[in-house]
């Protein structure tokens, strides 16, 4: 054992001394690939902040808007621990609700958005400007529980959704205070300074919603408002049984778009924005992407509304460097791969390690490998045996005699152990005088 350990340490030392990595100064193309790799690297976690800022029964649709987005992101894989839901009023338990403990976003009452698995983090008068800004900046009093905080980091992608009544660069909160675009811009700038997000997708469904993004000056933020300056945001469906409108146009078509996606869809943000035409919204949506470093058609929407990350699954029938094409409107039951269709090449970012580092093998390693080869050849030549041959009759007879003696010796040993000895039979013709004398000598000893 000591010899094996000693030789292992010796060979490891030779290999360590003979091999070393050297750093090569990368060229401009390699530097761009390194920068692209670190920027395009997968995010680490997803969060969603969903706020309904309106009170009173006639604003029922704003609660339905927020709960519809909440229901959708949960369906896409986000957990309640990564969703901050703020409802300014509890319309589900309102005495004017003909169906208590329910909130619906369609007149057919197909899905109760206020089900048993909902977790409201901030409700009632706790939904105010101060708590909204503290939520983004992370400046809570010590008594605020961790479940009500936005525990993001530098690898977090955040979906921010606001709905309610608004105007030019402001959003009404509880009908008695306002949060303006400057407050949101400053709060997100502090988030950027503290490293509390990677990317933010900001969606607003209010009147003149596009103006809420006028003071965004922090990087990596994309925004879309349901209406431009001087335009209103309209409701879509009216429920005559409940007596109020149940959803707004922008939120309805956004949820409808999300429902046609799954966690492997490749829909980009640009395609999502272009879906909202004037015919659907009856207003002109306003978006901003000038603070984002990449074109919006290169940004996947799943990075904000789903908990999935960029992972390529390669089936056995495809080559290792191939990536299958998936339909952007694919559903869970649709096959992801088809063995007879061509596939696009693999496009995941790869760190150019070969261009930056190089492994150099010294002369010590080559000398060690050569010595081991010569030692193996010499041992093979020196220890080779002669060709096998057949035994002679004399060797066979000697082998049989040795086996017979071993058998007799074993029987005598067994008889002594049991203290029972076989009797001599004179009629046994095979018994020899030598065997009889041996038996008598052993019997006299006892």
Report on this model:
This protein is α/β, with parallel strands linked by helices. The chain has helices spanning 2-18, 28-39, 60-75, 129-137, 181-194, 249-259, 269-274, 278-281, 302-305, 353-356, 363-382, 393-418, 433-444; strands spanning 19-23, 45-52, 83-87, 122-123, 156-163, 166-167, 170-173, 177-180, 199-205, 221-225, 235-239, 244-248, 286-288, 322-323, 344-345, 357-361. α3 (60-75) packs parallel to α6 (249-259) and α4 (129-137) runs parallel beside α5. The model is unreliable at 310-348 (pLDDT under 50).
Q: Would you list the SSEs in sequence order as H and E? A: HEHEHEEHEEEEHEEEEHHHEHEEHEHHH
**What low-confidence regions span 5 or more consecutive residues with pLDDT below 50?**
310-348
Q: Please report which band the strand proportion falls in: under 5%, 5-15%, 15-25%, 25-35%, 35-45% or over 45%.
A: 15-25%
Number of helices: 13
**Major sheet: arrangement of strands:** 4-3-2-5-9-10-13
Helix content: 25-40%
- First and last CA, distance: 49 Å
Structural class: alpha/beta
How many extended strands? 16
> From the alpha-carbon coordinates, what is the Rg to the nearest angstrom?
41 Å
Main sheet specs:
7 strands, mixed
What oligomeric state do the depicted chains represent? Answer: single chain
- Name the overall outline: elongated
- Average pLDDT rating: 79
List the defining traits of the structure above.
446 residues, three-stranded antiparallel beta sheet, alpha/beta, 13 helices
